[in-house]
Design a protein that fits this description.
The protein is an alpha+beta fold. The chain has 6 helices and 8 strands; from the N terminus they run αββββαβααβββαα. The N terminus is likely disordered.
Length: about 160
């Protein structure tokens, strides 16, 4: 069975057909890049650290949310998000529900890989959209220009 050292888990690893980049809260599937909420990534890391063992709700809550706690519903929602990403990319169910006990991550699908880290998506890999080209800002600028034009037209008509 492949075992991943803790530093490797925290920096990046491959699970099924996905590459996981915990510092970026990202999972790269064969089809797309998915950004996760930090707590959802923390749930995945907890399952990875305890792979091939059942991890109960209480353990997940203690390790991810700490003393502030969380509801079982938050845990279920995080698991659901992870399943949507991981199962979409891999035909095997990687996270299994063990009724009344918790969740089980199939660790045999987890592979330590330097290439997962070496090929991590960095800012230079993806085209960076200039701020002025962002669709929301372009729409706001167009609206502002229209409002300014109407204001000038009204001012000129009023004899200004």
């Amino acid at each position: 069975m492949n075992r991943i050292n803790e530093p490797d888990v925290e920096n990046g690893f491959k699970i099924g057909d996905c590459r996981v980049f915990p510092p970026l809260n990202r999972i790269q599937t064969p089809d797309r890049d998915v950004r996760l909420e930090p707590k959802v990534m923390a749930v995945l890391l907890c399952l990875v650290r305890h792979r091939d063992r059942i991890v109960g709700h209480d353990k997940l809550i203690a390790e991810v949310w700490g003393p502030s706690g969380a509801s079982a519903d938050l845990v279920s929602r995080a698991i659901g998000q992870l399943r949507r990403v991981l199962d979409e990319a891999d035909s095997r169910a990687l996270i299994e529900t063990v009724r009344g006990e918790g969740y089980f991550l199939h660790g045999k699908s987890l592979v330590p890989t330097a290439s997962a880290i070496a090929n991590s998506p960095v800012a230079t890999d993806a085209p960076v959209m200039p701020l002025w080209a962002h669709p929301a800002l372009a729409s706001a600028a167009t609206l502002a220009a229209c409002v300014a034009s109407v204001a000038v037209a009204c001012w000129l008509q009023s004899g200004g």
